[in-house]
Structure formats: C-alpha cells, structure tokens
Amino acid sequence: MAEKNLLNVKVKNGTFYISSKEDKGEGWTKQEFTNPQNKEETLVRYHRTLSVEGKLNYLAIGDDKYQGKVLKLIVGGDSEDYALSIPIMDTGGSVKTTNQYFNSLIGSLENVNKGDTITMFVNNKNKDKKDRLYRNIVTLNSEGKLVKSSFSFSDVPKWLNTEVTDEFGETVTKWDASPTNKFYIDKAKQVVNGFKTNDSHASGAGTAEDMPETQPTVTEPDDLPF
User: Fold this and answer.
1) Structural domain of residue 84, as residue ranges?
2) Is 102 part of a structural domain of the chain?
3) What DSSP designation does 153 have?
4) Residue 10: count of CB within 10 angstroms of its CB
5) What are the tens digits of pLDDT across the range 18-43?
C-alpha cells in the first residue's frame, strides 16, 4: 500500500486550506501577500481549500515555534492524512484570550474517541452583528450528525472587569479573561488525557514526530500568507 501524504492543514476565514509555493493545477488558487518581514516584497502562494475527513488518530497539546501553545491533531483519511495545529491563545488583542477556533473544537472533542471517524469544516455561513464570520470549527460524526459540546455557554465563566482611573483621571473598564481561558484550557487537558487512555495505535495512526513544522505567519490568524 502506498504511503499517504500528510497535509499541513491551516485555518483562515471560513475554510481549512493547504498552501504551496507552486501552482499544482486544478483546485489551487493564487494568493498574493505583503511579506510581513519585508513590506516591499510581495509573496505568492497557492491555496487549496478542503474539509478534513477521517479517523482521529492523534491529539495532544504541544509547542509551536511561531504560534506558541497549540492543540495538535492528526486525522487519517482514505487517501490523505491531515495534520492541524490550532493555536490555543489569540495574539494581538487588547485582552489575552483563548482562540475561538480552539474553543469551538474543544467542546466537540469531548465527545470524540480515538479512532472515531469525523468530518471537520470551518464555519462559512453564520455571522455576528458586525457581519463577521463566527470563528468556529464544526465537527460531524460518522453519520454526518453534529457533534455537540457537553457544556453550554452558560457554563463558561465570564470575564472579570474592574474600574480603574487612567492617566487623564477618567474611569475606564479593564477586562480580564483569565477565568474563561482557564475553563477552556482545563477542558483541553481533560480531553487530551482521556485520549491518551486509549493508547493503542490504530493502523495509520499519527504520532508527534509526524506533525509538520509550521512556517512563520502574519499576526492576523485569518489572513495567513503561507
């Protein structure tokens, strides 16, 4: 049996995708970006969008050189295997928060076992009041039914807020998402530990060594140039 390719799957606004420096033909679209390390240089990449379908073979929390702490998954498909590294924390915001894609995925992974067949895709329809797509990863089971979270939004601790006086003598509100962050990170640890209890590798199962190394990206997670 021929060895399957392990695809490095990334997330952007409304879709999963893989990236290449070369045009591989049908299904690949050209993308041009300003190099974040050199604003005068334009980078060209080719993207192919996809959904992720197969058996969940590997799940762990790990470190990534460019994204920090990540949730790592390997899903074994029929003809291709998929490796995903979902950042646990968001970057660039005024409040330190867990990543929304990570939050949505943890809820469903509570109800997925090692070796289960799943389909994952990125929300590309539902939007918030500012007409922005919700940053959710949707998970379906082998029967095509939605894998729901075991907890509701009412179970998630709220952000803390304090009133402080700024340099101009004005009262401003400072927000702290630590209780919310801890809730999702603790859930992730529980899910990963439960996954490890079933440690017998299925055929074609992935390992940490299989995970492809990510490449540097721009700050905005929905506009990755690579």
Assistant:
1) 5-199
2) yes
3) G
4) 20
5) 999 999 999 999 999 898 888 899 99
Below-50 pLDDT ranges, the chain: 200-205, 215-226
Q: Is 159 inside a domain boundary? A: yes
Structural domain total, the chain? 1
Distances (CA, A) of 186 to 61, 62, 100, 182: 11, 15, 15, 6
> Does 45 fall in a domain?
yes
φ, ψ of residue 167 in degrees (nearest 5): -65, -20
Specify the pLDDT at position 1. 52
Q: At what angle do helices 100-109 and 178-196 cross, to 10 degrees?
A: 40
What pLDDT, on the 0 to 100 scale, is given for residue 220? 36
Neighbours of 224 (CB within 10 A): 21
Task: Report if residue 178 sits inside a domain.
Answer: yes
pTM equals: 0.83
- Cα–chain center distance at 91: 13
Residue 6, CB-side half-sphere exposure with 13 Å CA sphere: 17
* Sign of the alpha-carbon dihedral angle for 164, 165, 171, 174: negative
